[in-house]
């Protein structure tokens, strides 16, 4: 794969790259509608493939928050066309890496030495490369290490990237009023946290220690003396990415075992620690030869405050969902319903969220849930399509829900998709055990 000697960091340079991408996408639409005039039965598959390729090619050299958006979208399997999911999923661990000279320069700047002066061996070619950093294999005193190096300028470009995205997001989600800014601030703060490797080092050590007793989970050790604000060193963990394992696994017992470990990991974080690994995509999990789950990235940790936690999980109780008064009360607590809503808006959003929450909380309604259930995921896809086509929804004020929904919903949506990849049937009753302790 071609390496990069430079990453655009200036606002004008990055905006120019996005404009070029937009022009390519526009050309794809012109070509599509031209062909459709000749062939009225032409579907959008080729258009989706061309757009996905051009958008991904435009973002992969920008890296940072621009590519992070593609990574997040690749988790949205039930709503996005498959062409986008396939292409954007590359951003999870397979994008053009930094060149060896740029890697050496980064080491010298942030650790004061070149990699060959710190390690006995250091592989100049990256083992994998994602949106914010890339990983190299190194050895020292007989131990194998994974060394994550952050791309230059990533943190500096976050604000300008979001400023470019904001007008499109505002129109897409029909955000109105000054309080919509809270969503953009939440995203910006989390992205800035992900570029702080000193914070990630601390979070990684704390999370690994807190979750070490969960069955079938393994964590790497982390090395503060070999880390800095842009470099993070941990044990090299042998395994394959979850998506690669799931694509070829035919052993139901292994899938269930891994799914249970994944579910227990997330429920323990959510209900015991009140903070959660909020970036559950396949690139952040390895599977070893003994079918253990290896979480390897704790850059994005979302803290869950009580004022959000309690009403959010009370809505997972069918007795609340099916009680109109209690359900309405929780919607106000979670800022889904607003005091300035009209009666029409109240009725409309109550109906939408009742349908949505009744479906998404199904895994919590019984002792077991089978995430290989295609009907469940088909319902999610159908609901997403209905919302996309709903003209009334586009007329409503889209400022709905606490800012905490952004990363908590992302967490559960990603978790469900990983469980579906594994085709896992798991016990979910530990959720109620944790709730009783709360």
Characterization of this structure:
The chain has helices spanning 11-38, 45-60, 64-73, 82-88, 100-111, 115-118, 154-172, 181-194, 197-210, 242-248, 252-273, 306-314, 318-321, 324-333, 343-360, 374-389, 391-395, 405-422, 430-437, and strands at 121-122, 128-129, 133-140, 143-150, 231-235, 240-241, 275-277, 285-287, 293-295, 301-303, 368-370, 425-427. It is of the alpha+beta class and 438 residues long. Among the domains are: 11-92, no CATH class; 240-438, no CATH class. Strands 1, 2, 3, 4 and 5 form a 5-stranded antiparallel beta sheet that branches. A 3-stranded antiparallel beta sheet has the order 6-8-9. Helix 11 packs parallel to helix 19 (430-437). The longest helix has 28 residues, at 11-38. The N and C termini lie far apart (50 Å). The model is unreliable at 73-79 (pLDDT under 50).
